[in-house]
C-alpha cells in the first residue's frame, strides 16, 4: 500500500518497549521542565527534571516535589505508568503463544467420555 505521497506504508507500526519508555521519559521530562522550571527552585535544568522523572519511574519517589498543577499531573502519570513501562522494557522478547488446538481437542475427547459415563 502506498500513501498519497507515494511512500510505502505497511500500516501502523508499533514501537519496541524500550522505545516507548524512552519516548515517554523524554516527553514527561520536557513537560515537567516547562511546568516547573520557573516555579520550582529545585528544577533549574532539563537534567534536574530528567533526574526527577527517572527516579519517579523506578521507585515512584524523588527528593524533588512538584509545585505546579501540570507538574503534579506529570508526576502522577509517571508514577502510575512508569513502572509498567519500565518492567515491559526490561522483559525479554515475548515468545509466540503456543498452539492450544491439541489440548482443546483432548479436552473435548475427555468431555465426550464423561458425558457417556453420566448417561
How would you sum up this structure, described in words?
- By secondary structure, the protein is an all-alpha fold.
- It has a domain at 17-93: Helix Hairpins, CATH 1.10.287.70.
- Helix 2 (46-59) crosses helix 3 (69-90).
- The chain has helices at residues 17-36, 46-59, 69-90, 101-118.
- The longest helix has 22 residues, at 69-90.
- The chain contains 4 helices and no strands.
Name of the top-level CATH class of the domain at 17-93: Mainly Alpha
Largest sheet: none
Parts with pLDDT < 50 across at least 5 consecutive residues:
1-9
At the fold tier of CATH, the topology name of the domain at 17-93 is Helix Hairpins
Class inferred from helices and paired strands? mainly alpha
Mean pLDDT: 85
Distance between the termini: 58 Å
Global shape: elongated
Produce the secondary structure layout.
Elements: H1 17-36, H2 46-59, H3 69-90, H4 101-118
Name some characteristics of this structure.
119 residues; mainly alpha; Helix Hairpins; 0% strand; elongated
Brief write-up:
The chain has 119 residues and is mainly α. The chain has helices spanning 17-36, 46-59, 69-90, 101-118. The chain has a domain at 17-93: Helix Hairpins (Orthogonal Bundle), CATH 1.10.287.
